[in-house]
């Protein structure tokens, strides 16, 4: 069963650039995980300083492998003091996904 994760990261203003760079490393490494189907990074427009991640995995085992990966653990250790609030994570189960064609945005 495909699992989606929607995560929101709210960096402290003085750590915005550092958090973005750490997230870009996460994107690159997470996309290379065998069970990862998508790992997309967004920045909010307008007032609130926040980054959003949309992640898609083939199953729960792939999510757990991601959370146990060295790059995820390193990201969590590095950014803990850089965020203004706990990361908001929402899990979802796909009901209707567009076909993945492998083309980048």
UniProtKB/TrEMBL annotation:
Domain ABM stretches: 3-91
InterPro entries, per database record: ABM_dom (IPR007138), AI-2_Isomerase_LsrG (IPR050744), Dimeric_a/b-barrel (IPR011008)
A GO molecular function held by the record: monooxygenase activity
Keyword Oxidoreductase: yes
Oxidoreductase among keywords: yes
SUPFAM superfamilies, alphabetized: Dimeric alpha+beta barrel
Keywords noted in UniProt: Monooxygenase, Oxidoreductase
Top-level taxon of origin: Bacteria
Protein name: Antibiotic biosynthesis monooxygenase
The organism of origin for this protein: Pseudomonas alkylphenolica
Upper taxonomic lineage: Bacteria, Pseudomonadati, Pseudomonadota, Gammaproteobacteria, Pseudomonadales
């Amino acid at each position: 069963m495909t699992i989606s994760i929607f995560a929101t990261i709210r960096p402290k203003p003085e750590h915005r650039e550092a958090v973005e760079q750490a997230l870009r490393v996460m994107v690159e490494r997470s996309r290379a995980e065998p069970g990862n189907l998508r790992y997309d990074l967004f920045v909010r427009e307008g007032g609130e300083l926040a980054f959003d991640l949309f992640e898609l995995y083939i199953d729960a085992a792939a999510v757990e492998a991601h959370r146990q990966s060295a790059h995820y653990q390193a990201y969590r250790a590095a950014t803990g003091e850089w965020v203004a609030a706990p990361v908001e994570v929402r899990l979802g189960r796909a009901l209707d996904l567009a076909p993945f064609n492998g083309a980048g945005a």
